[in-house]
Specification:
With 825 residues, the chain is mainly α. The protein contains 28 helices and no strands. Belongs to the SEC10 family.
Length: 825
């Protein structure tokens, strides 16, 4: 039988062939309709296919026939006849009809089987649902049973717990009663005769039961003391009943506890000598019952070698201060303290290991140890290096002065703060080691601001004495100096020094560093910084003001020398050497004062820069502190500004006096009224002009260097105005002809070219007007009225110059001008 169809017997190609028999199994699994169809028709078509293959090459096969290889028909088909083209069509139709009939039958069979299966499934489903319902009812009943059982178990458990509690309470009461009986028995033993400890139980004398004895003794003493306290309260209330108390027991217990404590301490010391940490720990644990073990802790700390060995203290002093009799320096002390405090930290660290292994409360022991270290060992060395000096009679600067004490204080404070941090890292329990460290320096810090200000004052006085000594030494080595050459010697020897001001700032900066170190609160820091900075302002103000005053004294001496020269000239009419000496003194004093002004400006700039970089940031956190310091700085420097202003006025007077002297001595009457002798006119400036410009160029060189900004502009403007007035006054002493007018124009060009270097527009304008006015000496008389038509404001000055014309009277210029300028007549 082939795949898909089972044949019952042979069949032919006729229409009346036997029907196909299809099996339902053919439709199970991977069913293929193509395969079924091929199996049905393969027995009818092979002859047709062979004939087609023989009759026509290239026509190909009928599509789908080659693939029909599955299935066969019952019987063998007859050879194909050549009459009809497709003779098996009837057989195929009959075949298909039979197949359809069998397929219908098969479907009915399948439908029947499906109905039967549905009924069976429905029946089984009903049975299954009924079974599940019964199971659920059984589970619910089971849960209820478990709940009842759990409730009974809980009830039984609670009852058992209550019974256990009662049993435990009863056992505790029994134990307490037993202990109370024992305690009462022991208490009665202690309440015997005063001081009689011989009849005590063996417990209190057995060394192996010391811990138990100590615990019982402490309980008995607490009870006895409480009983005495209650009796005292009742007596105070008037309810006391006469009877014997427990005073004897308390006294005997105290004696026994003291004796036991001393015995344990002795055992503890012996174990400590042997480094027997186990025995030490046992003793410490028992001793902790006596006053919480305070005596044992203190005893252990007090017996440390660093607290009882005198050689340790001597070694500390040698390490920090060096050999006896030598003057210690802050740097050496800093190194010594660092080494000493490192040794102390290492020792405390080693002790911490022992304390942790021995004591039940190591933190409390460490607190006592660290406190003892700071209060005894550290305080001992601080007392040696910090001897507080007296402000009434401070040590001299040659021996270090107050500054040495302050530097030592700062070094000691820094190193001790570092020690406190190291000890905190090692461990010091609940001890506030930082606060304790601060307390070691409290007496020094309370008076620190006064010592700092006194030190700055002492340094300033020492510096001034040093400068005065140097000046006196130079003066003595120079010998006798003539008045003409020595007018400014004393001033130059004590000239303002920027280096000295830098020293002031350096001292103050060091003081501010210490102030920052000692002042933890912003308000305190701001107040101390302000006070210390005020010291600097006072020092700089006094120093530069005195320096400017000395430079002014030199200017005054030069002015006095000029006055003597003038008086001498009036009397003797000849003092050329004296005049030159006075001029040299004036020029020297001018330059000296300009140097003083320049150094004064540099000094002020240094102070202002120092304030901006170091002081202001410390004052800003406190309201008003920064503004107050700025105001103080302005007030302090105003004195120096006033001295500088007066000195600059004197400088102008000195320069004008010398210019006046040069003009008076060098200007000749013929300079502006040359005779008409046929010689060509001299177009060079006059000798007086040349001398004046050369003098001004030389002397003002120092002013250009020393002054700057608005100060320079104001000084040169004032000098230019004074020079213009002086020249006007000077020229009104002469008579001018046209050649002299040209000479005057040449002088004016020199003066104008020089004053342009002043950079003062108002001065330039005045000298330009002088050049216009000088034209009155050059133009013809008839051109004078039209000369100032565009400049009516200078007609008054021009009229005074016109009167200096040589032909003023001969040309009757007064009459002409009065008619043209009636307002000026």
């Amino acid at each position: 039988m082939t795949e898909g169809i089972r044949a019952r017997g042979p069949r032919s190609s006729s229409v009346n062939s036997v029907p196909l028999i299809l099996d339902i199994e053919d439709f199970k699994g991977d069913f293929s309709f193509d395969a079924l169809f091929g199996n049905l028709v393969n027995d009818l078509l092979p002859s047709f296919l062979d004939e087609e293959a023989d009759s026509g090459d290239g026509h190909g096969n009928i599509a789908g026939v080659d693939g029909l290889t599955n299935g066969h028909l019952r019987g063998q088909s007859a050879p194909l006849s050549s009459a009809p083209f497709f003779p098996e069509v009837d057989g195929l139709l009959s075949l298909f009809k039979d197949a359809c009939k069998e397929l219908v039958d098969l479907r009915k069979q399948v439908d029947g089987r499906l109905n039967t299966l549905k009924k069976e499934v429905s029946t089984q489903d009903s049975k299954h649902r009924k079974t599940l319902t019964e199971i659920e009812k059984g589970v619910d009943g089971l849960f209820e049973s478990f709940a009842r059982l759990d409730g009974r178990i809980s009830s039984v458990g609670q009852t058992a717990a209550k019974i256990g509690d009662h049993l435990q309470s009863a056992d505790a009461q029994r134990e307490t009663a037993s202990q109370t009986i024992d305690l009462i028995k022991y208490l009665m033993e202690f309440n015997g005769s005063p001081g009689d400890l011989m009849e005590l139980s063996a417990l209190f004398s057995d060394d192996s039961r010391v811990a138990e004895a100590a615990s019982i003794a402490q309980k008995l003493r607490s009870f006895a003391e409480e009983d005495i306290g209650r009796q005292g309260a009742s007596a105070a209330a008037g309810n006391a009943t006469p009877g014997r108390g427990l005073e004897v027991a308390v006294a005997n217990l105290q004696d026994y506890c003291n004796e036991l404590e001393n015995r344990l301490l002795s055992r503890f010391d012996a174990a400590s000598q042997r480094r027997d940490l186990s025995t030490m720990s046992e003793c410490a644990k028992i001793l902790s019952q006596f006053n919480r073990g305070t005596s044992a802790m203190q005893h252990y700390v007090a017996t440390r070698p660093m607290f009882i060995d005198v050689e340790v203290m001597n070694s500390d002093i040698r390490l920090v201060l060096g050999d006896h009799g030598s003057q210690p320096s802050p740097s050496n002390v800093a190194r010594g303290l660092s080494a000493l405090f490192k040794e102390i930290t290492d020792t405390v660290r080693k002790e911490a290991a022992t304390i942790t292994a021995v004591f039940p409360t190591p933190n409390e022991v460490m607190a006592i140890l660290v406190q003892r270290v700071l209060e005894q060992r550290v305080t001992g060395i601080l007392d040696k290096i910090l001897a507080k000096p007296s402000l009434m009679s401070p040590p001299p600067v040659q021996e270090g002065g107050l500054l040495l004490y302050l530097r030592m204080l700062a070094v000691a404070y820094e190193r001790t703060q570092e020690l406190a941090k190291d000890l905190r890292a090692v461990g010091c329990g609940d001890l506030d080691v930082e606060d304790l460290t601060e307390s070691l320096f409290s007496s020094h810090k309370d008076e620190y601001p006064e010592h700092e200000r006194a030190s700055l004052k002492q340094l300033y006085q020492a510096k001034m004495e040093e400068l005065r000594a140097e000046s006196q030494q130079v003066s003595e080595s120079s010998g006798t100096i003539g008045r003409s050459k020595g007018a400014s010697i004393s001033s130059s020897l004590q000239q303002i020094s920027v280096t000295v001001v830098t020293d002031f700032v350096r001292w103050n900066e060091e003081a501010i560093t210490r102030c920052t170190l000692f002042s933890s609160q912003p308000a305190t820091l701001a107040a101390n910084v302000k006070a210390i900075f005020t010291c600097l302002l006072d020092q700089v103000s006094v120093y530069i003001t005195e320096g400017l005053e000395r430079a002014r004294d030199s200017l005054s001496e030069a002015a006095a020398l000029r006055e003597r020269f003038v008086l001498g000239r009036r009397v003797a009419a000849a003092a050329a050497s004296a005049a030159e000496a006075a001029a040299a003194a004036g020029e020297s004093s001018f330059k000296s004062f300009m140097v003083a002004v320049q150094r004064c400006g540099s000094s002020v700039a240094i102070v202002q820069q120092y304030f901006a970089n170091s002081i202001s940031r410390l004052l800003l956190p406190v309201d008003g502190a920064h503004a107050a310091s700025c105001e103080e700085m302005s007030t302090a420097l105003s004195k120096a500004e006033a001295a500088a202003y007066k000195g600059l006025q004197q400088c102008i007077e000195t320069v004008m006096a010398e210019v006046d002297r040069l003009l008076s001595s060098e200007q000749k009457s013929t300079d502006y009224r040359s005779t008409d002798d046929g010689i060509a006119s001299d177009h060079r400036p006059t000798n007086a002009c040349i001398r004046v410009v050369a003098y001004l160029s030389r002397v003002l060189e120092s002013a250009f260097t020393a002054l700057e900004g608005l100060n320079k502009q104001a000084f040169l403007t004032e000098l230019g105005n004074r020079l213009e007035k002086l020249l006007l006054t000077h020229w009104q002493k002469f008579t001018f002809n046209p050649s002299g007018g040209l000479r005057l124009k040449r002088d004016l060009n020199e003066y104008v070219g020089f004053v342009k270097s002043f950079g003062a527009p108002s001065v330039d304008e005045k000298f330009e007007l002088l050049g216009i006015i000088a034209n009155v000496f050059i133009v013809a008389p008839d051109s004078l009225p039209t000369l100032f038509e565009g400049s009516p404001s200078i007609r008054k000055d021009a009229q005074r110059f016109i009167q200096l014309r040589e032909d003023y009277k001969s040309a009757k210029l007064a009459t002409k001008l009065s008619s043209l300028w009636p307002s000026l007549s």
